[in-house]
Amino acid sequence: MYKERKLRIFMQSGPSDPDCTREIRQKKGQPRNRRDAVPADAYERKTTLIDYQPFWKTLKKSGESTYTLITRHRISSATVDKLRKNKPMNTTTLNDLCRILECTLEDVARYVPDGREKEG
Questions:
Q1: What residue ranges carry the coiled-coil annotation (predicted)?
Q2: In this structure, is residue 54 part of a structural domain?
Q3: Same domain for 107 and 79?
C-alpha cells in the first residue's frame, strides 16, 4: 500500500524523492542506470569522417568572422560550435555556408577516411 501511494504521488508531482524514482524504475523493468541501457560497443571512440578544417581557412580568406556569421547572416552559435568540434551537420547548413562565403563544398568540409577497411 505504501509503495502504491508513493507511485501515485510521484505520478502527480514528479520525481522529487529519489527512492520513489528508483522503485518506479525497477517496477517498470527499466535498467538501473544509463550504462545498463546502452550496448557496450556504443562507448568505443568514434572517428570523425568529415572534417571542417578547410572552413576556417575559407572564413579567414573571406573577411567574415564567426561574429558576422551569427549576427549578420543568422547562422546559429550551435552551428559554429558544431564546426569547431567537427560534429555532424545538415547539408542545408553547409549549402548556406557555401552561399555566404561564395565557395564550394570542398572549401568548407573534407572527407577523412577512418582507416578501417570494410569486410566482406
A1: none
A2: yes
A3: yes
CB atoms within 10 A of CB 109: 19
> Cell numbers at residue 69, please?
556569421
Residue 25 C-beta-side C-alpha neighbours within 13 Å? 14
**In terms of domains, do 35 and 72 share one?**
no
Mean pLDDT by 10 residues, the chain (120 residues): 61 55 55 58 62 95 94 95 93 95 95 68
Structural domain includes residue 30: yes
Q: What is the pTM of this model?
A: 0.57
Same domain? For 76 and 36 the reply is: no
Q: In 9-119, at which residue ranges do the beta strands (DSSP E only) sit?
A: 50-51, 110-111
Residue with cell 573571406: 62
State the cell numbers at 48.
Answer: 570523425
CA distance linking residue 79 with residue 94, whole number of Å: 10
